């Protein structure tokens, strides 16, 4: 969408074509009289999205009538308030924001074709909505943000599919939510942040497998949770923060005995 040729930060109310907005020729005079619209605050003809949204929040019953408006922002915001069965036609709207708004409210079966939408914003919207097996194709999307959103929505068993994703943030999400018995598969991940997540969740009796990790942050996470009988080695760690964590735990254990 091309940038407006006028200054939308200027004072006053202007429409999407840059013309001044006036209540004198507005079809919603009754709404204004009853306090359900207000120039420069809640107005469907204003270019500002916040004012358009405020108008529809006060007048949701008219949203259906604006689904074909020439300004995409009006269509997208109207889609949040319109009758759901009227939204199907918007799935083929030329503007991604409109398609995403429609997809956020329609049943899953209706929106599945949009998993291959050319715009990442639409696919991200779907990744938030879909669940279970319907998410599987989105875990392999070319866009990492789509994959990350899908990973955050996916059930733990599906996360096995992306345990080797190229993006470390996605592998971190896998490490946070994958079943604990699959965590050993990430112990040797090349990204320390992933290994930290593993150390935070792995069973304490298995953390000795990570006690010599090359990254002190991982060893610190290990020292905070490892079984007491394995703490002595970490109490002599070359990193002072790791060693102190282990020593403090040992001291606490001795006090309780």
From TrEMBL:
Query: Which residues are in coiled coils?
Result: none
Occurrences of domain LRV FeS4 cluster (ranges): 13-65
Against Gene3D superfamilies, the record matches this protein to:
Leucine-rich Repeat Variant (1.25.10.10)
Q: Which SUPFAM superfamilies match?
A: ARM repeat
Recorded hits in Pfam families, A to Z, give: LRV_FeS (PF05484)
Q: What is this protein called?
A: LRV FeS4 cluster domain-containing protein
Q: Which organism is it from?
A: Martelella alba
The top of its lineage is: Bacteria, Pseudomonadati, Pseudomonadota, Alphaproteobacteria, Hyphomicrobiales
